């Protein structure tokens, strides 16, 4: 049977693949947007007033940005090293889509790609021009000019079959897209695998878009199902499972991040379940990509190591992206 050899969780935000001098480019868009924080919606100015005592202005100097960017790059290199050292034959990546391949006509709650090929080409110039400045110039960090990679239909179909037997209704995708791959997956391909892409099964969770977002508890149970599927797959393949996304953003909440990391480390998700679904909206919802992987690790008893946690603020309202980098190994590998 297949053997799970590694679990990983990585953030994938644009600030990771752009110079720190550009981190403020997103702030004009932040000022115009409504933001989810502490279970409700806020304007930018309301957040500035509410968080004034945190002195977040101290977090948004260029010197701080340079230091935190360097921390993130070092963590990414350590994650890449750990992945290469594990020598997986197959990788299962749990990510989400942000209208990159789906649209409002159809947004599945849970999806697995079971086709043979993953295509990841740079998006069109026209589409690039529709993106906010802080996102547009990050795209090369997720997409080469043109690339295609091997998928793993046999494992993908086995994951789907196991999930259906476990009472999960899963969409089966023959392809992600004819031209591009969601950045949740592209980040892992480019930054952790360094374009030497290991055959991959993409698993997608609808974290962003109501009304059919799976709950935190549902995501954890789905992860356990994925873990059982991999371990019952009739091969001798070595498999790594990677979560891509999060942590809290577009408004950073370090309290939530530390609670989630502690729950994963302690194999006890009851404090996360108790936070309620209102916390896991907008960017922070991408924590739900980590939770299935944590479910896999709870199923098999691997222990978590935190490589780094780096809150990257870009405004005095607390907007930005809290970056997390962790991995799980069996206790005898630690």
TrEMBL record:
Pfam families: LigB. The keyword Acetylation does not apply. Keywords: Dioxygenase, Oxidoreductase. It comes from the Bacteria. It is an enzyme of class 1 (oxidoreductase). Residues 74-258 form the Extradiol ring-cleavage dioxygenase class III enzyme subunit B domain. SUPFAM superfamilies: LigB-like. The keyword Oxidoreductase applies. Its EC number is 1.13.11.-. This is 3-O-methylgallate 3,4-dioxygenase. It comes from Paraburkholderia atlantica. The lineage of its organism: Bacteria, Pseudomonadati, Pseudomonadota, Betaproteobacteria, Burkholderiales.
């Amino acid at each position: 049977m297949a053997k799970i050899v590694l679990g990983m969780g990585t953030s994938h935000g644009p600030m990771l693949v752009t110079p720190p001098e550009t981190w403020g480019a997103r702030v004009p868009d932040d000022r115009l947007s409504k933001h989810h924080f502490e279970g409700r919606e806020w304007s930018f100015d309301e957040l500035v007033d509410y968080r004034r005592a945190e002195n977040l202005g101290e977090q948004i100097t260029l010197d701080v940005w340079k230091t935190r960017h360097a921390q993130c790059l070092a963590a990414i290199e350590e994650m890449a090293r750990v992945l290469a050292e594990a020598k997986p034959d197959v990788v299962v990546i749990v990510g989400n889509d942000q209208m990159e391949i789906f649209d409002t006509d159809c947004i599945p709650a849970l999806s697995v790609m079971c086709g043979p090929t993953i295509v990841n080409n740079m998006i069109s110039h026209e589409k690039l021009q529709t993106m906010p400045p802080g996102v547009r110039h990050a795209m090369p960090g997720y997409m080469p000019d043109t690339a295609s990679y091997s998928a793993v239909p046999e494992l993908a179909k086995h994951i789907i079959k196991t999930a259906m037997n476990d009472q999960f209704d899963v969409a089966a995708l023959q392809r992600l897209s004819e031209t591009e791959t969601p950045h949740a997956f592209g980040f892992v391909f480019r930054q952790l695998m360094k374009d030497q892409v290991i055959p991959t099964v993409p698993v997608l969770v609808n974290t962003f878009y109501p009304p059919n977002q799976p709950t935190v508890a549902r995501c954890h149970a789905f992860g356990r199902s994925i873990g059982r599927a991999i371990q019952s797959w009739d091969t001798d393949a070595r498999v790594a499972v990677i979560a891509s996304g999060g942590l809290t953003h577009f408004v950073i909440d370090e309290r939530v991040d530390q609670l989630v990391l502690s729950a994963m480390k302690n194999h006890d998700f009851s404090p996360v379940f108790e936070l309620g679904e209102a916390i896991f909206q907008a960017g922070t919802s991408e924590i739900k990509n980590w939770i299935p992987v944590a479910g896999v690790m709870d199923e098999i008893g691997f222990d978590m190591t935190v490589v780094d946690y780096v809150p990257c603020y870009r405004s005095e309202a607390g907007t930005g992206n809290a970056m997390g980098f962790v991995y799980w190994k069996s206790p005898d590998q630690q």
